[in-house]
Amino acid sequence: MSGPRAPDGARPWRVAAEEALYGAGGFYLRAGGPAAHFRTSVHASPLFAAAVARLLCRVDEALGRPGELAFVDMGAGHGELVGGVLDALPAEVAARTRAYAVELAARPSGLDHRIEWLTEPPRGITGLLFANEWLDNVPVEVVEVDAAGVVRLVLVREDGSELLGAAVGGEEAEWLGRWWPLDPEEGLRAEIGLPRDRAWAAAVAGVERGLAVAVDYAHLVGSRPPFGTLTGFREGREAAPVPDGSCDITAHVALDACALPGARLLTQREALRALGVTAGRPPLSLATTDPAAYVRALAGAGEAAELTAPGGLGDFGWLLQPVGIPDPLPHDSV
């Protein structure tokens, strides 16, 4: 994506972030990649990939165990999730699974040969498409209310300094009116999620039968943050968002706006518990009968606690979009 610059080099945030993240030499395409700059549920514990593998098995059952079962990992990074899912699947299911990693960066060396590396999601799949912390990195416009109560685009220079641009109109104003209405109070901000809505709809359209899941830090209409959520991450720490390619640039996702008919929203805590991830401590008696097993179980409980923690990863949103199958996570299981 490219766009006009103001005389002082300022551009709308969506254009600036797109170039900083995905342009030549951008944050997500440079050597080494972004892995050192943030940590997702995938990195927190192998329990996450194991839970996704169990979800894939449920989708497999709902599909009638097809001869070819697809698993698509959107925004795959270095392929950690798709590799973990393949390792966690029962042998019979793994033998039928066709695994795809969708990522703009180059294929990592040493990646499991069973994983197909793509820059665009495959079409017409039967199986599970899983997007863990993908939508938050789809760049969006940032807007702010000026002193007269007018909602305007926020422009940004390469050093991160900002100024206000043109008034928001058309479909962007319509999206704000429906999904993130702003009072005419100077300084209130929002992020316009239209590009994410469209990206998600396009990804779901590639699923012929099965399930699409988006997992991200999210907010819902009626409880949007008054000053938006735009931020950066550099070397594992939150930082000012600067569109120069040196840091990740992200914003929370309006998952309710992304949802298509038939979708369901729940928290990661609810979803993982329904998939068997619990933080219960092992019985102390196990420490006597099998000390090694007790230590492993205790470590697993700690990892499960992190994945489901209130105020942390457990509050992430899961958007489930069944396509031609029943919801594989029954309501009474969450």
UniProtKB/TrEMBL annotation:
It comes from the Bacteria. GO terms for biological process: methylation. One of its GO terms (molecular function) is protein-arginine omega-N symmetric methyltransferase activity. Keywords: Methyltransferase, Transferase. The keyword Methyltransferase applies. The keyword Methyltransferase applies. This is SAM-dependent methyltransferase.
